[in-house]
Amino acid sequence: MRVVFIGTGDFGVPSLEAIALDGRYTIPGVITQADRPFGRQKELLPSPIKRAALKLHLWVFQPENINSAGSIQQIQFLKPDIIVVCDYGQILSKEVLGIPSIGILNIHGSLLPKYRGASPIQAAIKNMDKETGVTVIWMDEGIDTGDILTSEKLLIRSNDTAESLHNRLAELGARLIIQSLEAIKAGKAPRIPQDHALASYARKIKKEEALIDWTKDKQEIDAMVRAFNPWPVAYTTLKIGEEKKILKIYKVIISHRARGNPGEVVRIDKHGVLVAAGRAGGLLLREVQLEGRKKMHAADFARGARLAIGTILGQKDED
């Protein structure tokens, strides 16, 4: 079976590797996004999928627009039986969807129809769900609306960040895509329609969504910090002298003992910086990064910044 792989981000790397190393499938080509500028030097960097494909000695195609006439012609030349798509970043046209002789599979990091869209992993953590999973669907023209081939649940741990959950789901996705290809070869691959009435969407995250509202409950803020680690990273503001600085927060521990106004620093010790939240309790800041500085333990930050008890984080200008 000839399998063309289409993807860009880290999420698809275990799946590409699993298909390539399985030995029962031919990968005539891997399609990924063009190299993008990164960092202050604007150095062109390949996508994680391109790096993985080159290590596996696979041919790589990087169209600016996968739906262009030239791209369609190139994909047709590869004569795929199946196309596997994972975390690509472009919507496939009807013409592309019709190229493979069997169909196109998509690996999605949620239990569809829940959390269709760009950020299902972050949404599951932020909404304090107990479980999530991976779904393999037969792609259609909608966004994550195709029939389900298979899915499997995964429990969300209390300390999961978007990064740790992403990595576990990516490994699960690799196992499910191999199972899916096996089912197709055996002629036993189901097509289970999604219940569209149960659909929800996890749209692309914007940086400003990561601003912490200290009046919220401690569990909500903890979930937000974990959901936005490693990107865009939850943050608050802090006045140092006459300047207002951004303080990114990477790791916190829920505390039931904090007593103070929302955002108030109520304790500083070797364990970190304890900040009061809305209702009862607060959060012990453990790992932070002040604007223009390196990431560090919150206790070291507090000492270097001469942070005082009673400081209000996230204080508005008019307060």
Task: Give an account of the 3D structure.
The protein has eight helices and 17 strands. It is of the alpha/beta class and 319 residues long. It folds into two domains: 3-202, Formyl transferase, N-terminal domain (Rossmann fold, 3-Layer(aba) Sandwich); 207-305, Roll (Methionyl-tRNA Fmet Formyltransferase, Chain A, domain 2). Strand 14 and strand 15 (272-276) form a beta hairpin.
Write a concise keyword list for the protein shown above.
seven-stranded mixed beta sheet; alpha/beta; 2 domains; EC 2.1.2.9; 319 residues; single chain; six-stranded antiparallel beta sheet; Rossmann fold; 8 helices; Methionyl-tRNA Fmet Formyltransferase, Chain A, domain 2
**What share of the residues lie within helices?**
25-40%
The Rg value, from CA coordinates, equals 23 Å
CATH architecture of the largest domain: 3-Layer(aba) Sandwich
Order of H and E elements:
EHEEEHEHEHEEHEEHEHEEEEEEH
Catalytic activity: L-methionyl-tRNA(fMet) + (6R)-10-formyltetrahydrofolate = N-formyl-L-methionyl-tRNA(fMet) + (6S)-5,6,7,8-tetrahydrofolate + H(+)
Family: Belongs to the Fmt family.
GO cellular component, one term: cytosol
Organism: Methylacidiphilum kamchatkense Kam1
